[in-house]
Write a structure and sequence with these properties.
By secondary structure, this protein is an all-beta fold. The strands form 6 sheets. It has a 5-stranded antiparallel sheet, with no helix packed on it. β3 and β4 form a beta hairpin. The longest helix is centred in the first third of the chain and has 8 residues.
Length: 412
């Protein structure tokens, strides 16, 4: 397995110095602003480093108008992903279908090549398979070592781009000592730890993972309550990481030998690409503004120096595409169909649609407001439908009959 140890030393000498006086702040990302705090752990002790052996009317949302970074952009690498990987038809949000209900805190959602879905339960560690054609959920794996507490537990899921050959599924979860990424086969057996040492806490664990159109694994992490980590390139926390499928730093990263793709994040919760292979990410703000960011390799997104749109410090920081007040959003998962991003909102209890291109870029509209309660994860299925999970059983929502649910909205 590979932990933080291998690459921490190699980038320390060229790291940006963490800003002095940046305090620690940790509160529930989708709860009212308070002065509550949480104590983050140190990164877990990794085993000997080394390569893995194998295996939503327009709202008060604010488009960014501040100056953009002058840092040279490094575009996402080209790839061989088929065009079908980028749905072009908008979902029919007036035609919901309940795929499953009575799921315990669904968090991760990923699709198998045939259209069936895998959904992970945050607190139990179970992974359920939901048939594309309907039917009762079936447990297909139980991730060992999940230590669910606060916002931690079994979080993101991703299916290997080569699943038909390798049968591998990836998961991000909170363990006893740290947050980590593992991979396993649905047929059984122990998971293989491919990346560990991501500091954990009661809040700000990040956890979204997704394979990009370049075949690399992108990992969204949180600052785990210690804001200095987000500006420290030698820490995996408060970053978007880009890994090879075996967990090693992906080739072509901004710093050779480092998994860090972008930094200055507080708590990344959603990752999605448009048809131009441009990466976007959602992020919880602190007390004022939540964000959708257009992610470019090597860019610094400002936390904790900047929350929302602000002074880029002469191009050092990159402003978000759109912001919302934390009451309106607390954005979690994100999916893209055509030129529109769909963002699931927890505290906001709505699905935001966000235009990504042209003069309307950054304009957003609330959908499904208050209809289903807290919304956690949204994803596009192989058939172009939009799937959405509720999150009312996570201790912060009003539980309704049938919660939590997985909903499907067919393409128009």
């Amino acid at each position: 397995m590979i932990g933080c140890t291998r690459w921490r030393a190699s980038v320390a000498l060229i790291a940006l110095i963490a800003l002095a006086g940046c305090g620690s702040s940790a509160e529930p990302d989708d709860a009212p602003a308070t002065t509550a705090s949480a104590t983050a752990s140190s990164p877990g002790a990794a085993s000997s480093p080394g390569a893995a052996s194998s295996p939503g009317a327009a709202s008060s949302a604010t488009p960014s108008t501040g100056p953009s970074s002058t840092t040279p952009a490094r575009s996402t690498p080209s790839n061989a992903a088929p065009s079908s990987a980028f749905p072009s038809r908008a979902p029919n949000l007036g035609a919901p279908q309940v795929v499953a209900q009575d799921i315990e805190v669904p968090w991760g959602l990923a699709f198998l090549p045939g259209g069936d879905a895998l959904v992970g339960e945050r607190d139990t560690g179970r992974i359920l398979r939901l048939a594309a054609g309907g039917g009762a959920p079936r447990q297909v794996y139980d991730v060992p070592g999940v230590a669910a507490s606060g916002e931690g537990g079994l979080l993101g899921l991703a299916v290997s781009p080569s699943f038909a050959k390798d049968n591998l599924v990836y998961a991000y979860y909170t363990g006893e000592q740290d947050n980590r990424v593992v991979r396993f086969r649905l047929g059984g057996g122990q998971p293989e730890v491919i990346f560990d040492g991501i500091a954990k806490a009661g809040f700000h664990n990040g956890g979204r993972i997704a394979f990009g159109p370049d075949g690399m694994l992108y990992v969204g992490t949180g600052d785990a309550g210690d804001t200095q980590r987000s500006q420290d390139p030698s820490s995996p926390n408060g970053k978007i990481l880009r890994l090879a499928p075996d967990g090693t730093p992906a080739p072509g990263n901004p710093t050779a030998g480092s998994p860090v793709y972008s930094l200055g994040h507080r708590n990344v919760q959603g990752l999605a690409w448009d048809s131009r292979r441009q990466l976007f990410a959602t992020e919880f703000g602190q007390n004022e503004l939540d964000e959708v960011n257009r992610i470019e390799a090597g860019r610094n997104y400002g936390w904790p120096i900047v929350e929302g749109t602000g002074d880029t410090d002469g191009g050092r920081f990159t402003n978000p595409l759109v912001t919302w007040s934390t009451d309106e959003a607390s954005p979690s998962g994100m999916a893209i169909a055509g030129d529109t991003a769909y963002v699931a909102a927890l505290r906001g209890e709505r699905l935001w649609s966000v235009s990504l291109t042209g003069a309307a870029a950054g304009q957003s509209k609330p959908e499904l407001q208050g209809r289903y309660g807290r919304l956690r994860t949204v994803a596009t299925a192989p058939d172009g439908s939009l799937w959405l999970t509720t999150s009312n059983t996570d201790g912060r929502g009003a539980v309704r009959d049938g919660d939590d649910r997985v909903l499907r909205f067919p393409p128009r």
